[in-house]
Design goal:
about 40% strand; about 130 residues; alpha+beta; AtzH-like; Nuclear Transport Factor 2, Chain: A; DUF4440 domain-containing protein; six-stranded mixed sheet; NTF2-like_dom_sf; 3 helices
Length: about 130
């Protein structure tokens, strides 16, 4: 039977997500790469790009501008399934150019022998 939201697992994944958020907003490319699964099967759908495989995600991270990455996060939800699968969703507010935009993000995390990794991610902005 699947155990939903074991408090210890929710806490562990939440802590890792907050590490991801800090790395994202400070452009800590090494940590961002470390938190994604290093495999051809990993996918990241970004606000303006579709990335397939860890090589494409790493190239995107290394080429991304470090300017204006801060955002306000809200409605963070972590749902865990047993001790090795989790879904993370949130909404965010970010200034893009001179305009404030609302967006959303979702990630699937899996716990491998080497630890938790993001196996699928999606980021998008809501229509103006």
């Amino acid at each position: 039977m699947t155990q939903i939201n074991n408090p210890a697992v929710v806490s562990e994944v939440t802590e890792l997500y907050l590490k991801y958020e800090q790395a994202l907003c400070s452009n800590d490319v090494e940590t961002l790469i470390e938190l994604f699964w290093d495999a051809a099967e990993v996918v990241r759908f970004g606000a303006t790009e579709n990335l397939y495989g860890s090589a494409e995600i790493q190239a995107f991270r290394q080429a991304r501008s470090p300017v204006n990455l801060e955002r306000e996060m809200f409605n963070l939800k972590v749902v865990t399934f047993n001790d090795n699968m989790a879904a993370v969703t949130l909404e965010f507010r970010r200034k893009v150019g001179e305009k404030e935009r609302l967006g959303r993000q979702s990630q699937m995390w899996h716990k491998f022998s080497e630890g938790w990794k993001i196996v699928s991610a999606h980021v998008s902005f809501l229509p103006d």
